Amino acid sequence: MTAASDNVAWLTEDAYKRLQDELEYLMGPARTEIAKRIEAARAEGDLSENGGYHAAKEEQGKQEARIHQLQQLLQRAKVGETPADDGIVEPGMIVEIKFAGDDEVERFLLGSRELASLDESVELEVYSPQSPLGAAINGKKAGSTASYEAPNGRTVKVEILTVKPYTGS
Q: For the whole model, what pTM was predicted?
């Protein structure tokens, strides 16, 4: 991995479009609405004890933070189609693994948290392709094993059980 690719957010075209739509809404109609609420609350008088004004200003701050977050994300996004269902681990894939010596199966998305967070009904762990586990399994096939050094210095071995493209569910 190069330093330039370490900060990439892997997104499908659909995910990129939904994030762009959210950004456009927040920068347009949502900004106008919050500005009107602030102005209406300001017209009520004394701002030091005006709960509506302070709530609207706080919401405005959160909205502006989300706008900044989306702008940064979209600038560093690598957009691609949903990966092929070829059993090879790559960003955009749901991976099931077992750690050596453990019978429990771990299921996660290799990619960007933003991709999984677009569908709030899906509860899915997300690992970055640059994480120790992500880097170790990236490019491997279902049925193979990989190992990586954990932050505590121990070598961890995993078996890749299944690899399927993430489709939003």
A: 0.59
